[in-house]
């Protein structure tokens, strides 16, 4: 299964300004926040993770019929290496998710693929 999403970086910036820590803690894990806050453009980093979580949510729903919360999806960065997805729901621990994130000045985009038994689901 595949999932894709695009988000305006300005939308995420406004949500951070308006709702602050309440928004950040509801959407992002502590490790995601730690990683993004180290980036020069931390809002674009958050936006890419928002798009990533939406893309993963869509792929998981198509393949398993399960609706995830943003807080059940963790997208970890590794400075210059591809991001990794960790699903925090026990019944989904066996699912491998590949993700590609990208961001630029105005938008962030993500594509996710679910892999099982060595192939795409």
Number of domains: 1
Largest sheet: 4 strands, antiparallel
Named CATH topology: Ribosomal Protein L22, Chain A
Distance between the termini: 5 Å
Average pLDDT confidence is 94
Q: Helix content range of the residues, please?
A: 40-55%
Low-confidence stretches: none
Tell me what portion of residues adopts beta-strand conformation.
Answer: 25-35%
Using the coordinates above, name the CATH class: Alpha Beta
Provide the CATH superfamily.
4'-phosphopantetheinyl transferase domain
User: Strand-and-helix sequence, N→C?
Assistant: EHHHEEEEE
Structure classification: alpha+beta
Structure overview:
This protein is an alpha+beta fold and 121 residues long. It has one domain: Ribosomal Protein L22, Chain A (Alpha-Beta Complex), CATH 3.90.470.20. It has three helices and six strands; from the N terminus they run βαααβββββ. α1 crosses α3 (42-64) and α2 (30-37) runs antiparallel to α3. The radius of gyration is 14 Å and the shape is globular. The model has no long low-confidence stretch (mean pLDDT 94).
């Amino acid at each position: 299964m595949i999932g894709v999403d695009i988000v305006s970086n300005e939308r995420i910036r406004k949500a951070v300004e308006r709702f602050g820590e309440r928004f950040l803690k509801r959407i992002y894990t502590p490790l995601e926040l730690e990683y993004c806050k180290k980036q020069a453009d931390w809002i674009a980093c958050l936006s890419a993770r928002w798009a990533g979580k939406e893309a993963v949510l869509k792929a998981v729903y198509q393949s398993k019929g399960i609706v995830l919360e943003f807080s059940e999806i963790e997208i970890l960065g590794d400075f210059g290496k591809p991001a990794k997805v960790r699903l925090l729901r026990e019944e989904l621990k066996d699912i491998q998710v590949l993700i590609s994130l990208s961001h630029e000045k105005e938008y962030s985009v993500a594509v996710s693929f679910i892999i099982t038994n060595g192939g795409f689901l």
